[in-house]
Amino acid sequence: MSCSRRDFLKKSFGGALSAALPAGTGAFLGPRDAGASVGDAKKRWVFLVDTEACTGCGLCVKACKTENEIPLEAPITRTWVERYVVTRDGEAHVDSPKGGLEGFTDPQIRGETIDPEDISKAFFVPKLCNQCENPPCVQVCPVGATYQTNDGVVLVDREWCIGCGYCIMACPYGVRFFHPVHKTAEKCNFCYHRITAGMEAACVQACPFEARKMGDANNPDDPVTKVIKTERVSVLKDEYGTEPQVYYLGLDEKVR
Amino acid sequence: MSTELVVHGAEWTIKELFVYPNEFIYWSIQIVMYPYMTGLVAGAFVLSSLYHVFGQKDLKGIATFSLVFSLALLPVAAMPLLLHLQQPLRAANPLLTPHFTSAIAAFGIVFSTYALIVLSEIWFVYRQYFVAQVELLRNQAGIANAMRRTVYRVLTLGAHDVSQPALAADKKAAKVLAAAGIPVALFLHGYAGFIFGSVKANALWMSPLMPVIFIMSAVVSGIALCMLTYIVIMEWQAFRNRRRGGSEKAAEIKAAETQAIDKSTRFLLAFLVGAISLELLDLIFRGYTAMKSWDILRSVMYGKDFMNIFVLQYGLGNLVPFFLLVLPGRNLPRIIIALVLVLFGVFMMRWNVVIGGQAFSLSFSGYMHYHIPVIPHSVETFKEGVFGALTVAATPFVLFWIINKFVPSLRRDMDAGQSSM
Hints:
The complex is a heterodimer. By secondary structure, chain A is α+β, with helices and mostly antiparallel strands. Helices cover 23% and strands 19% of the residues of chain A. Chain A has a domain at 136-186: Alpha-Beta Plaits, CATH 3.30.70. In chain A, strands 9-1-11-10 form a four-stranded mixed sheet. In chain A, β5 and β6 (154-156) form a beta hairpin. In chain B, α1 runs antiparallel to α6 (164-197) and α2 crosses α4 (107-136). Classes of the chains: A alpha+beta, B mainly alpha. Chains A and B meet through β3, α3, α4 and β7 of A and α3 of B.
């Protein structure tokens, strides 16, 4: 009795194994190997922010929220503008009320009035996803729901994201959040649906001062690429080794 | 726009000074519970292995109990993750498309491997008992007995051979599994430490010591919880026996209990010293190297979280129980107080890592304060509030009560199945 059961188990195990093997013999495929990747590999989207040109009007934030269906009143945003007021004692007073959505009309910074005589410098810094060459968010996603396209943009698959928040924790720039309606990780994607259709990103189009521009780093004739190649640009938090692809003109050392 | 806009984290996060707009306490109480419960599982298993692998005979009673208790704790290690996910229905995705560069991706695999080891070890330890029960219940009347017998028949998996060679094989298999289980249990938990330690964006978390610290504190908390539960159950049994007039039996129970507790205390102390040393090393190293993030870390650790870290975790949770256990004249009430404090200390350690790691902004220019939801007014505030955490904490005891009905881990007369007839 026990012998025949043993044989039965052996045979069914063998059968199951041989049935499973053809499916399992394949190597683990990345999206690129599986031919499921998107984007033109000849391109590399880059972003250029001219902090000298930004006036903190907030039109970019409004345009972004409208274009990408991020509720206006929700305290999260794909892009935001920070105001820096550095006083003579060297202290930086920073704020970004509602992400700068309504501009900066109040001279007070978080309830604090700063004497105009005491200001040594002041400026605005727009922030957005850096579409890192080495994105930590993509590295930590347990299901591969966030991925890098061939042209360098990091996207999120709302249909597959489990909402663990690991990518939010992994991003040193704080650009990620949970979408209040879709309940999945969300962030700026350079308006991928627009740029791949030949349009400008919503924020780029909305900026009246050309403080935001986009280009293709692989095209040496691209005007934005020319600026990045020939002028003194910097990136945010390069110490994390993420190789951010949003370049800044006139970035102050106070900017975090 | 809809009025039911729930921005995850906005409910319980209070921001101070400059914090990026999208920053909130995204990982809340359930992510505190996750390493805490995983640690308890790992620790309980290690305690049981001390007997099964290393032959610490005086730990036999508590070891058998710990093994079954670690099974009861096991599903609860995954529970906080489920309660935390924004898309809980997609919980199987990491198994369907595991993205192995992520530290979380292998959780399901490591967790299932460990679950298989625990389940099979328990099966080998109790198989003889299951077979005996099938025989014992054969001629007993009543539907309940028939149902119990069916359960036991299923539990034997058709292996009714209780000859000496078969039992010897069982014993050997249990030992091999217990030995294989130690690295897997430690891996399961060291891995939880890696999930935090590898986040380079988080100045507090990023440390290669994190997995080791997690393992040490895991063993500490696991041993403490097993000891505490064991004491409570043993005291209850002794009390019941005394009331029935079996004072001799009560004394016997107390003796067995004291022996197991004395021995476990020694192991507990060793791991406690290891855990504290590593944590202090980490702290000193951060202060000494004083990287860019040290300014804000220092203001959090020595300022805002001083009470949580130095008073509650190190003081009340580590130092006080250490002295309670080390100083001469140790008695049961003192041990119980020490164990409760140890458990609290490890919980505070998890809290200070998970919540403390989100207490400061990535801009290093502001702070976030976590206000845990107490009275729930939505699914989210239940799941990620006090009641969600309490549900998780209570579940292992309920599970143990059920499992122990079929796998009696606390009967000394059973002798792991050898004399149950």
